[in-house]
Write a structure and sequence with these properties.
With 249 residues, the protein is mainly beta. The chain has one domain. The protein is built from one helix and 18 strands.
Length: 249
């Protein structure tokens, strides 16, 4: 007799997108953060009581979502990134470092391992993705001496994949995976000088372009973590016997 395929719980993940407007020599604005969700079936039996994850920016919760059971969610919130990048009368300056500490909190009731995918990109005035400006000009300073590990084989100039190698206990937060952000000052060197009589004006080639920093955060419970991570994230990892630490193979 053919056995029925088991149905397993699903994992939560959140994608938070925010953008800051770069106007060389002018102010910075921010757009509404877009928060979406997806879920994937586990191929290993899980004992999920309640799994949740929150994204923090400079010690403030930006977005969160907690899974209860039977595809029910609670505590969902959406926010904006980079809203406090500048003071009220400040102007954005390429080359200047701004505080941008990003970390993750376990807002569920079981221990988890977490992964964050940071994607950097540019858009023109019409909202189209610009491919002539390198994402490397968006310099998010990553911290990897505190438990965060960059998966170099999964990363590109546009996308950085980071894993926190220690289990995050319920209610605890990871250390920050970054501390500052800046736009490389070379972007302000492409400028045209205009002389009209006694008036001199300068036009920057990239005025009006926006830089985008997207953070995708998802969590996997520590129980049976090796199989769960393989199923959910598609990567092979080593997990300690007590399921408190992990490392990429």
């Amino acid at each position: 007799m053919k056995k029925k395929k088991k149905s397993f719980p699903k994992k939560p993940a959140l994608i938070l997108t925010a953008a800051a407007l770069l106007l060389v020599g002018s102010t910075v604005g921010s757009t509404r953060a877009a928060l979406t969700y997806y879920s994937e079936n586990y191929s290993a039996q899980m004992n999920m009581q309640s799994i949740g994850v929150s994204l923090l920016e400079n010690d403030k919760v930006v977005s969160s979502r907690d899974y209860v059971s039977n595809n029910e969610w609670k505590g969902t919130s959406e926010g904006e990134l980079l809203t406090d990048l500048l003071g009220k009368d400040d102007t954005f300056t390429p080359g200047k470092k701004y505080n941008e500490a990003i970390n993750v909190k376990n807002s569920g009731t079981i221990d988890t391992f977490v992964r964050v995918i940071i994607t950097k990109s540019w858009q023109d005035k019409e909202g189209k993705k610009n491919t002539t400006l390198s994402p490397d000009l968006i310099e998010l300073n990553f911290l990897t001496d505190n438990g965060w590990q960059i998966a170099k084989d999964q990363s590109t100039t546009e996308r950085t994949v980071l894993y926190y190698t220690k289990a995050v206990a319920t209610g605890d937060s990871t250390p920050a995976l970054s501390d500052t952000i800046r736009i490389n000052p070379s972007i302000a060197k492409d400028v045209t000088k205009h002389v009209d009589g006694y008036t001199i004006t300068y036009t920057y080639k990239y005025d009006g372009y926006t830089f985008h920093v997207d953070a995708e955060v998802d969590a996997v419970q520590t129980h049976n973590a090796k199989d769960a991570i393989k199923s959910a994230w598609g990567v092979d990892v080593n997990v300690s016997d007590d399921e408190t630490t992990m490392s990429l193979q």
